[in-house]
Write a structure and sequence with these properties.
The chain is mainly α and 181 residues long. It has a single domain (1-170), classed as Oxo-4-hydroxy-4-carboxy-5-ureidoimidazoline decarboxylase (UraD-like, Orthogonal Bundle). 63% of the residues lie in helices and 0% in strands. It is built from 11 helices and no strands. The radius of gyration is 18 Å and the shape is globular. The structure holds 1-(2,5-dioxo-2,5-dihydro-1H-imidazol-4-yl)urea. Residues 23, 67-70, 84, 87-88, 118-124, 157 line the site of 1-(2,5-dioxo-2,5-dihydro-1H-imidazol-4-yl)urea.
């Protein structure tokens, strides 16, 4: 897809395409729509990041809370978003051994008890061993460090989701010249 196609989208098309670039935070996409036209995808991405950066602490915590646990309840019940399912699958979290799942579940709980939001990491840039190591280490951090780190991970996830959308073929329907009868 090219940026001209994104710029030409109606609000609904834009939401259907970009609504989940930040997990379960369509409000961010809805706000960014009014920044069109974008010169390029980097500018679109930066508009998302600027919105997140401008949020107060409670808003950033809210963004983190919209993320499902890794290998958590939603994965087991099949209720993850399509993007999240692909990411968790790619990191090997859909094929954990029972003892690995239990370890991650305990670490997820300890992390949430301490910080009040879930552990967030860009799963596509990690694999299960690294994720277990990272959560064990990051649970020792301060709340401020983890708020910043978690938001950095949200941005990495968003960057890769935007890349996936960009690599989609430009829909021919929006470019096609109407057939003359
Ligand atoms: C996720 C997710 O759903 N996808 C990803 O990369 N990370 N969740 C999380 N808690 O880190």
């Amino acid at each position: 897809m090219d940026i001209a196609t994104a710029n030409a989208m109606t609000y609904q098309e834009f939401m259907d395409t970009f609504g989940n670039v930040v997990e379960k935070c369509p409000l961010i996409t809805a706000a960014v729509w009014s920044k069109r036209p974008f010169d390029n995808f980097l500018q679109l991405e930066n508009s998302v990041f600027d919105f997140i950066d401008a949020l107060p602490t409670s808003g950033k915590q809210g963004v983190l809370r919209c993320h499902p646990d890794l290998a958590g309840r939603e994965l087991l019940s099949g209720t993850l978003t399509a993007e999240s399912r692909r990411e968790q699958h790619q990191a090997g979290l859909t094929s954990l051994k029972p003892e690995e799942r239990q370890e991650l579940s305990q670490l997820n709980s300890s992390y949430k008890d301490k910080f009040g939001f879930p552990f967030v990491i860009c799963a596509k840039m990690s694999e299960k061993g690294k994720i277990l190591q990272q959560i064990s280490e990051r649970v020792q951090n301060s709340p401020q460090q983890e708020l910043c780190q978690g938001i950095e991970e949200v941005k990495k996830i968003c960057h890769l989701r935007l890349q996936d959308i960009r690599s989609l073929a430009t829909p021919t329907s929006s470019l096609a010249t109407p057939t003359k009868l």
